[in-house]
Structures are given as structure tokens and as C-alpha cells.
Amino acid sequence: MDGNGRWAQARGLPRAEGHRAGGKTVRRVLGYCRDADIRYLTLYAFSVENWKRPKDEVAALMHLLVDYLAHEEPMLHEHRVRLRIMGRREDLPPEVDAALTRVERATAAYERQLILCLSYGGRTEIAHAARELARLAAKGELDPESIDEDAIARHLYLPDVPDPDLIIRTSGELRLSNFLLWQASYAELYVTPTLWPDFGEADFKAALDAFARRDRRYGGISATPSPQS
Ligand code: IPE
Ligand code: MG
Q: Of 126, 145, 153, 163, which sits most exposed with the smallest number of CB within 10 A?
């Protein structure tokens, strides 16, 4: 979800206003996902690197998050969406953590998932998995020789969540910025110049259409070869 700051700047507004507008986009996108029967939506809301931002912007983002949860909880129930958090939640202010825990518990029974990455970093997550495995090995509960890709995947933050099929980045930046580094290996990437607050149904449809045209070979060869090949 990139481009909130630029969206605000272009209007002569404080950056926090861009984040507020971005919150409205989240609400819209949840609706598009429901209509398209998408079971997992993961939003990169705040990275481990975002703590470097000015204190007032971080505070505004945290405040917005609590506000958002208070306002949107009924919508999560209405759409039967389970909220989950992924990241270093120990970094979050206690009131943010408490608000998140409350909504996570209240929505725990729903099948569709909205996953919020908060204080999240892909490298941090992989280091977390390595630490967990090392701990087990040190206790003699794990043979280091048995550590394979599945073992690492089982110790990521949310091991039951499937790898993403499609990653959409707004605002035109051509990088992953430490998002789901492990899980993204075979994700299809889609970048749109649209800034996150402006991201609408046409952008969402365009991303899904582009995804539908991709030939996902996973390092193999095409399952349906074209006549020329
Ligand atoms: C993305 O918008 C939202 C967060 C990182 C929280 P930005 O704040 O990165 O917006 P730009 O990149 O400055 O336009
Ligand atoms: Mg940005």
C-alpha cells in the first residue's frame, strides 16, 4: 500500500491525511476481495523500517490503526473476515496491541482472512524462523540435517497461510521492500502507478486480469504450450 504520502503532498495536505485516505482504500479493497472470492488478503501496513519515520507520523499511523479497528470491526463481522497480525507485535504500543488482540479474538472463527503486516520485515521473519529452529536443535528436538524448505516455512509467522499468488504494489515502485521475501518466490508481481488512496475497482480488476493472463511455470515448462512452441 504505497503512495499515501505523495497523494497528500500533491494536495498540499499533511501526510497523515494520505494515510487516512489509504484507510478508506482498505475498506474498498476488502469489498473487491469478497466479490472476487479471494480468501487471503495481506496488507503491508507498517514495516520494521517504518519506525525510522518522524515520531509524529508513526504516532499518527498507530492512532489511525486503533481508530480503524474501532470503526471497521462491524464490517469484518459482516463480511465474516478474520483479522490476523504478522510481524514483531512486541514492538507495537500496548494500546494498539490490545485493540488488535480484541478484534483477532472476536473474528477468530471466520474463514476468510485479512492479514495485517505490522512491524513486519521479510528478513526479520526468516531470522525468526532460523532462531526457532536453532532453539529446537539446541534442545535436541530437531536434527539440523532435517532442516529443509518445509521446516523453515513451518516456522514463519503464519505457517498455515498459503504463499501469495499475486502481489500488487501501488505508486509505481519496482521493488519488494522486504515484503514476504520467503513466500513471494513464485508470486506474480503487478505494479500500478496509481497511488494507494486512489486505488479503485478498475485498478483491482486490471490486476486480476493481468494475473489471469500470466503463465505460471514455477521453473517448469508451460502446461498448455502455444501452437508455435
Ligand atoms: C504507504 O504510503 C503507507 C505506509 C508505509 C504506512 P507512504 O507513506 O510510503 O507514501 P509515500 O511513499 O511517501 O508516497
Ligand atoms: Mg512509500
A: 145
Distance 58 CA to ligand 1 centre (A): 11
Annotate the chain with three-state secondary structure.
Answer: CCCHHHHHHHCCCCHHHHHHHHHHHHHHHHHHHHHCCCCEEEEEEEEHHHHHCCHHHHHHHHHHHHHHHHHHHHHHHHHCEEEEEECCHHHCCHHHHHHHHHHHHHCCCCCEEEEEEEEECHHHHHHHHHHHHHHHHHCCCCCHHHCCHHHHHCCCCCCCCCCCCEEEECCCCCCCCCCCCCCCCCCEEEECCCCHHHCCHHHHHHHHHHHHHCCCCCCCCCCCCCCCC
If you take atom 1 of ligand 1, which residue's CA is the nearest one? 2
Atom of ligand 1 nearest to the CA of 8: 14
Which pLDDT score, from 0 to 100, does residue 107 have?
98
> Is 4 annotated as catalytic?
no
Residues in the chain: 229
Atom 12 of ligand 1, residue of closest alpha carbon:
3
pLDDT of residue 18: 98
Compute, in angstroms, the gap from residue 170 CA to the centroid of ligand 2: 9
Does 229 score more than 60 pLDDT?
no
Q: Whose CA is nearest to atom 3 of ligand 1?
A: 2
Q: What's the confidence (pLDDT) of residue 225?
A: 63
* pLDDT tens column, 2-46: 999 999 999 999 999 999 999 999 999 999 999 999 999 999 999
